[in-house]
Specification:
- It is a single chain.
- With 241 residues, the protein is of the alpha/beta class.
- The protein has one domain.
- Helices cover 30% and strands 21% of the residues.
- The protein has nine helices and nine strands.
- A nine-stranded mixed beta sheet has the order 1-2-3-4-5-6-7-9-8, sandwiched between helices.
- Strand 1 and strand 2 form a beta hairpin.
Length: 241
């Protein structure tokens, strides 16, 4: 019987060698996230800590690295940690079977797009774990804050996640396409387009798929969103940079 979620990989984080796990969900019950749409979600979690505890105490380096948006830094990460918490608890109780060739064939048949890193930075997990999933699906989106110090092979799969024009230009010079979060009233740079969902909420990520790292597509910017206190924290962070 098809399950909603599967454990794809368990191993040492490529960020700090701590034990982490990669879980895919959405095979039976699609996400309720209207922006991402019908994508298979991927969760990169610490094996040792409940996500909210890790985030509050700065114990999420193994999955988030030095991302400036972390709760222990600026507190402006858009991810609602209730979902990762629930997935982590299901993982601990053994509710997720091991991902197998059967599920890989299912991905290949239905061509469900995959969201690389619904929570956590994809680069924490080896590329050789991701590539069979990406190739089977044929469609994906993904972002990394670790574009300054990772293998350039990731450029064909991920966007460089940035918050400032300086970081965007630096990443672009290194060959990355960028995804930049901007203030609600900030103008776009000359080589950016606005997130298509922000322009028209009938277009979700599963239909757009511009954020797939492909170098032939434009850079993307999106207006900061999320809970009011997170938006406020992000704007304060921008002012300090």
């Amino acid at each position: 019987m098809l399950r909603n979620g599967y454990v794809v990989w368990e191993g040492a984080s490529l960020i700090d060698s701590s034990p982490i796990v990669l879980i895919l969900t959405g095979f039976v019950n699609p996400t309720s996230n209207r922006k991402t749409g019908r994508q298979i979600q991927s969760w990169i979690l610490s094996q040792n800590y409940v996500p909210t505890y890790a985030a509050k105490h700065g114990l999420d380096n193994s999955i988030c690295g030095d991302c400036p948006l972390k709760l222990s830094k600026t507190g402006s990460c858009y991810v609602n940690l209730l979902t990762p918490n629930n997935i982590y608890r299901s993982y601990l109780t053994g509710n997720y079977p091991q991902f197998s060739d059967k599920e890989l064939a299912l991905l290949q048949h239905y061509r469900y797009p995959i969201r690389l890193g619904s929570y956590g930075d994809p680069i924490a997990v080896p590329l050789e774990v991701w590539e069979p999933l990406i190739l089977a699906s044929g469609k994906h989106t993904g972002y990394t804050h670790r574009h300054k110090n990772c293998d350039r092979a990731w450029q064909k799969y991920l966007m460089a996640s940035v918050e400032t024009e300086t970081d965007a230009k630096q990443a672009q010079k290194q060959g990355w396409r960028t995804f930049k979060i901007i203030a609600p009233d900030a103008p776009l740079s000359g080589n950016e387009i606005l997130c298509r969902h922000t322009e028209d909420d009938r277009i979700d990520c599963s239909k757009c798929l511009l954020c797939d790292g492909s170098s032939s597509k434009p850079n993307i910017a999106d207006k900061v969103h999320g809970l009011n206190w997170k938006v406020s924290n992000f704007l304060k962070y921008l002012e300090s940079t």
